[in-house]
Amino acid sequence: MMTQQRWQKLMEWPLVAASVAFLVAYSWEVLGDLEGRDAIAVESVIWATWALFVVDYLVRLFLAEHRGHWFFAHLFDLAVVVLPILRPLRLLRLVTILAVLQRTAGRAFRGRVVIYAAGASVLLVYLAALAVLDAERGHGGAIQTFPEALWWAFVTITTVGYGDYIPVTGTGQLVAVGVMVGGISLIGAVTATFASWIVEKVNEANEEDHAATKAHIDQVMAELREIKALVGRE
User: In which element (H, E) is residue 66 found?
Assistant: First the structure.
């Protein structure tokens, strides 16, 4: 009998492959400014990957024990289906294998968060540049080349926002909102991870001090018992 866990394990690598295919196809479409048969071929790949994610989402929803709860707990998966630009974020699952390099559970979790944040930042900047270039090119705005789009995405995700490149289309502005929200979220994740690391180091230092103090007290008590024993003999 097919279960949700079995289905997810079965579809893990096909979905990763679909993410890579989408990323390559979308990059080729935007950077190559394709027309004719090439454009049709690329669109076919994009639609095929989208269809695979739709099937995966619907099957997992069908196999869920509590479908209402599962639906609200997996809104990101719904966004992956509704917004094809988010599909490559599935690639972030690959970096979890690096967690085995961590020594403790706490450090493993923290290391995974850092890796996810770094990977998500790179993907978000690259995809935002593609998306805004796709939306802005040919509409009279300042963003007309990929380097300009990449610079815009970088200064936007870091919340710097020089204002030298501004989206003028509705789609471009919607991409900007997504990049700003994503940038704030990533900064929050990194800040929380760094704060957790500081708290752990402080706790380790306190435990070492406590252990050293207890050892010193035990040594003093032992010396006092020895002195008491010598006095008693006299």
Answer: none
C-alpha closest to that of 113 among 129, 124, 102: 102
Which of these, 9, 75, 8, 87, lies nearest to 47 by C-alpha position?
A: 87
Instruction: Tell me how far apart the alpha carbons of residues 12 and 18 are, in angstroms, rounded to a whole number.
Output: 10
Query: Rounded to whole angstroms, how far apart are CA atoms 29 and 40?
Result: 10
Q: In sequence order, what are the residues at sequence separation of 6 or more whose Cβ sits closer than 8 angstroms to the Cβ of residue 34?
A: 28, 42
Between CA 165 and CA 149 the distance in angstroms is 8
Residue 58 in this model has a pLDDT that exceeds 70: yes
> CA–CA distance from 174 to each of 27, 131, 166, 167, 179 (Å)?
19, 10, 12, 9, 9
DSSP notation for 174-203: HHHHHHHHHHHHHHHHHHHHHHHHHHHHHH
> Which carries the bigger pLDDT value, residue 205 or residue 49?
49
For the chain, report the end-to-end CA distance as a whole number of angstroms.
Answer: 85
Tell me what pLDDT residue 11 has.
Answer: 87
- C-alpha span between 214 and 206 (Å, rounded): 12
Angle at 113 between CA 108 and CA 116, to 5 degrees: 120
Cβ contacts of 196 within 8 Å, gap of 6 or more: 106, 110
